[in-house]
Amino acid sequence: MNFWLAVSSHGSACRRAPVSALLALFALAFAPQASALPSYEEVRQDFRSSETQILSREGEAIQRIRTDATVRRGQWIALADVSPALRTALVLSEDKRFFEHSGVDWGAVSSAAWGNLWNQRTRGASTITMQLAGLLDGDWRQGPGGRTVVQKAGQAVAAQVLDRRWRKDQILEAYLNLVPFRGELVGIDALSRTLFDKAPHGLDEREAAVAAALVRAPNARPAQVAERACGVLKDMRKSQATSCDALDLFTTGALQRRAFDPSEGIAPHYSRQLLAQLRNQGTDVKSARLRSTLSAPLQRVAVETLTRHLRELRGRNVEDGAIVVLDNATGEVLAWVGSSGMLSQASEVDGVLAWRQPGSTLKPFLYAEAIAEKRLTAASLIEDSPAYIPTANGLYIPQNYDRHFKGWVSARTALAASLNVPAVRTLVMVGTDRFHEQLKALGMPLRESGGYYGYSLALGSAEIPLLYLTNGYRTLANGGRWTGVQMQPAAITKDKSPTQPASKQVIDEGAAFIVGDMLSDTNARVRTFGTDSVLNTRFWTAVKTGTSKDMRDNWALGWSQRYTVGVWVGNASGAPMHDVSGTSGAAPIWAELMVWLHRSERNRIPKPPANVVKTAVQFGALDTAGSWLESPREEWFLRGTEQKLFAIDSVESAAAQASSTSSSSRGKKAATQAVAQGMPARILSPVSGTIVALDPDIPPARQRVQFIATDAPDGVRWLFNGKEQGRGARWGWLPWPGRYKVELIDAKGQVLDETAVEVRGAGVRQQSQQK
Fold first, then answer.
1. Is 61:51 a contact under the CB 8 Å cutoff?
2. What domains can be seen in the chain, in order of their start residue?
3. Which of 448, 558, 661, 767 is at a distance of 20 to 30 A from 626, taking alpha carbons?
4. Model-level pTM?
């Protein structure tokens, strides 16, 4: 016979006397174990959610991630945050005299014993307090065959101890947070968010009835749960007429729902990376509340700004983007947006860590190295004209973004206006291996050697994640001193200041300063970006844009005195964008974030280091239109490299004529005199034997070969295999596969110069032609 205690059923006093006597004996036996029950504060403190919360630097929860796969618990919910309907439903279902008894409901015990004696089904005698005791101590939990008499007695003793030590509201609150509901769901927070997609304070009567029914039968079939929930709902409404016709369908739908996402918040990609970093350090991240470096307000603005701009770009086949904001001083990550979320078909891909081609964004590091090695100054003149660079794989012929050439330009203009050919010429001076070494020193995780990338490395042919590229720009902002990125808050010293990370000088301080000054020069970028560019901020910033081959990646990276911001837009799939330029893709996002960051913060112009000087310079060479190449200005130099005049020997210069002591002017005069004596015109470009390889990724109409003749008289013409194709000293030819004898003739038909050119096109049958 299975009944609670062997007692008489005649009269309440008769029933209670033997029970109380036996309970007194059990109390003595279980006293040590019952006295070891934890306090409410201990239970609350030891509660472990299956979620880890990531907190912002301000202490605000910005991301929740499930880190315990064995159970599903939400957060601890205070009783005041549980809906009154659920509290009522639970008490009516499990323990109607909860607020009256002292842990054990003797009336229910007697009824259960009498029912067991006569094999009658009655409501169980286990109170909420007794069930909580079983949840707190595994020795009193119910096994597959039910609890033994000894377990029940111990549970009753423990319940009375709990009732004396804890308040009723504490008992009910702890029970709601610790009770298993269904499957892996434990606690009211996990149940509410999973089955009803709402917080516990929002549960209505019908939802509360279903939740209370699951306590008694956690894994019952939906129909059984609905039947019990109907009884609970009727008890709650008492005299009101209650129909349960639709409750079966509602219960079935709720039990099938899984609305509690494993991750939720505004920083999912950052949080996963932070947890991975902590795990690698041996830190237990389960059920933790982890402080991060992210700024919650900035993160929200970054997410909103990226989403809004990408919606505007959807018509141009752009759906993905990423943002990183770094603190220049500490390297702490202040914002990390890895995806456009719902706008993306690959929202789980972290664009901050994805390998993408950086395009022209590597140029600042190249010019910094050339300046540091004293191969160039910011005022040095570099020719932006067709270049044919022999490599092991054939000729490398770089082109500018707009397919036009600017002639002779200063390094300042070449960098700020993002001209490709001068960058490649600069890399030829520096060397691919040396530039590769510099990028590695900046923390760039390059997969291949410098020789593998070749001269295209100047134009960003390597793949580099946004995080490392942004930190490289932060290195320029810090005067060439590199430190790693920090995802965990910096430790605080005794004087309450954050500890500074270890750093190393990887770029000359003066060279880094000069490159920053070049990238902040709005006048220098006019040739490419115009006078009213989105890159022009009302406060000091240095910025560089970039676009990879076929418009697959678009970048904007730059810094102010305190912050470095990096933005990428494109498609995670690698699909090309349509008509997206450096100023229409990532740049508007970069500019908007910079304005927000400095909305109430002063921003100072960087102070020049000791190894730079400013000198007034003039550009004596004339371009082909007869105007000065660049206006006189004051320019920054590494100490010892400064000079006042920059000119080209092969072209007459008024400034050179005025400076009789200049050795370069004597060369210019000699060249001018030679022209006056009637030296014939000659073909400067392309040189004889040039092989042009057509790029299958560039539309044929956009591929032009520039033919340039020096000192050519009026009326010169270009003949290709005897047929006239163009006129003028400069002419852009649309190439077609074949071999050509090119002749430059004057107005009288006299041959002035000739060259040989071969054009090779992929997939096009070449026809040999006789010279």
1. no
2. 12-36+71-256 (1.10.3810.10), 322-597 (3.40.710.10), 612-676 (no CATH), 682-760 (2.60.40.10)
3. 661
4. 0.74
